[in-house]
């Protein structure tokens, strides 16, 4: 029992610098009471619905986030607060919180738009090109795969 509580405390201490580096976590039940959790949950739902903040979040990941939020709501409903929870339920709550934060943080990073200004070949016109980080990664991976498979060769690109 002491090991579980100590493990939770250690997890919280180790995750704090990571959250400080990435900015504020999307969800933090340790600092919230029941009403604060409801407000945080509403903010997450609003961000999921806007179509921009977590645009790169897949349907399966969205369902996982909603299921984790539902589980957290049920756990908080049983005890009323994090402090009143038995250690096992507290561990379940924090595991669900970490799952939500991990999914939302990754999706927010992947949904960030990056714009570049490039000159068209044979022209002096500068063209802006904007893509999300995930789109750029997919495009880069597709190009690397095409080169590996031999379907894209320098001769085919140059038109020789």
TrEMBL record:
Region (Disordered): 141-160
Signal peptide extent: 1-20
Entry superkingdom: Bacteria
Keywords of this entry: Signal
Protein name per Swiss-Prot or TrEMBL: Lysozyme inhibitor LprI N-terminal domain-containing protein
Lineage: Bacteria, Pseudomonadati, Pseudomonadota, Gammaproteobacteria, Lysobacterales
